[in-house]
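Checklist before submission:
- one chain only
- standard amino acids only
- sequence pasted in full

Submission:
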Amino acid sequence: MNRKLFRSIREYKKVSILTPLFVVLEVLMEVLIPLQMANIIDIGIQDGNLPYIIRTGLILVVLAMLALAFGALAGKLGAEAGAGYAKNLRHDIFYKIQDFSFKNIDHFSTSSLVTRMTTDITNVQMAYMMSIRLLARAPIMIVLSLVMTLTISQTIALLLLCTIPVLGGVLIFIARKAHPHFIRVFDEYDVLNNVVQENVNAARVVKAYVREDYEIEKFHGISKVVFDLFTRAEKIVAWNSPTMQFVIYAVVLSMVLIGGRDIVLGTMETGELTSVIVYALQILSSLMMVSFVYVMIMIAEASSDRIVEVLDEVPEMQNADNAVSNVLDGTIDFENVDFSYSGEGGNLSLKNISLHIKSGETVGIIGGTGSAKSTLVQLIPRLYDVTAGSVKVGGRDVREYSLEALRDQVSMVLQKNVLFTGTIAENIRWGDENTTDEEVERVCRLAQADTFIREFPAGYNTMIVQGGNNVSGGQKQRLCIARALLKKPKILILDDSTSAVDTRTDALIRKAFREEIPETTKIIIAQRVSSVEDADKIIVMENGEINGIGTSEELLKTNAIYREVYESQVKGGADSE
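Returned file contents:
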């Protein structure tokens, strides 16, 4: 497994070291047991010495009890070490993801990250737990059993010594042949999880369009790919057990032939042959353990590479040295900004944007689909970094701020904002977890959410199910606006976040903004002209460029795009009445 992952063992180093130590003690007890059994047969039974049989039998019981105790301790500590290691790995990956920018997250799919934190870490956990137990046990068992066999019969010991590398080579060959299939199967797991996630998230759409059969067929297709890959790998690994059994029986038969001849010749006792057979079985079973662990390690190697890929991902957003932690005000400046999602050299989504927004202004942004309205505002809280030029907030380049300080003063409300499982009050408190109930209710009144919240039987203690699917789109948007307001930001960005509310509610929300947060800079992206008509300035976007800036009256005179949208909505609406 990748050595980088061993850093995650941390506080479980002690139990990781104690586990193989107890395994060694268990093996020592198990190696001594056949020797005592041979003594009972060759000395006690053959000579009819009952006291010797009882005495040696008691020693056997003690050895067996010690082996049981040491084995149980090794199992307990090994399980703790493996589970603790997996816990730390999940912790490290999850914390790493929290530092990812949108660009970093775009590099991995959500389903892939989930697979890495579940299936891949489970594979690494199992391989690690087996390694510290079985890989410590097998080599010591092989060596000690060989030594004990050598003291009884050099011929049989030589037979075993020749068998070990041959069998080991065959088992390693089988594991290596299966390895590529295991690597591929985890990539397909990502696709499978993505299909399931997409289907569950879009369950309402699937049912609305009666596409269940199509989704089932799609799922069966990728599921069959995973099945085929696993089947190919398991068919190869399946040779492991019969090969092992064949060798075990062949070796035992050979030992019986050699031992039987030696017993007839008087150079070996019956009990010694019995103990030698036990030692041989211990050696061969240890080899089988090694092959099993080797297969697990090969699987875990593929998983560990995928985990390391996440841990090695360098977050695109880094705090500058001596990062500024205080945002002066809500002034925003774009200076010759170019931006491409692909980075330098890619197709530009924003081109040569220069813009000045005063602190406390209300700014509307309007434009067609794909005109880069959302892209523009995402540069303000530094969800992405500019490709060229600079974005300034409070007179400073956003890259000079610590990310926490900047984003704490820039609240964004998206059209498809997310609510989390918990009460309405708990969701609102994402804006400020230490706020009072009165303040929660105040921001909900500003967002026009208080009325519908009180209509629920449990009021602010109403539980929100995963994703907020038990509230309407408009209710969800208003709750998200309230959550953003609770932060008391210097800049508030509404990215088409009132699209699901009626025009009257939209107007009341904007009125509350003007009266309650006049010093906050407000940027409103909207498809409805009425949502931005009374803004201090309106920005018209087209193809990633600013096509016009001005008040509604000014743009009606100077900007053809705005005039066309205005007339189609305002005059068209009037005509239809």
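Reviewer check: The chain has a mean pLDDT of 84.
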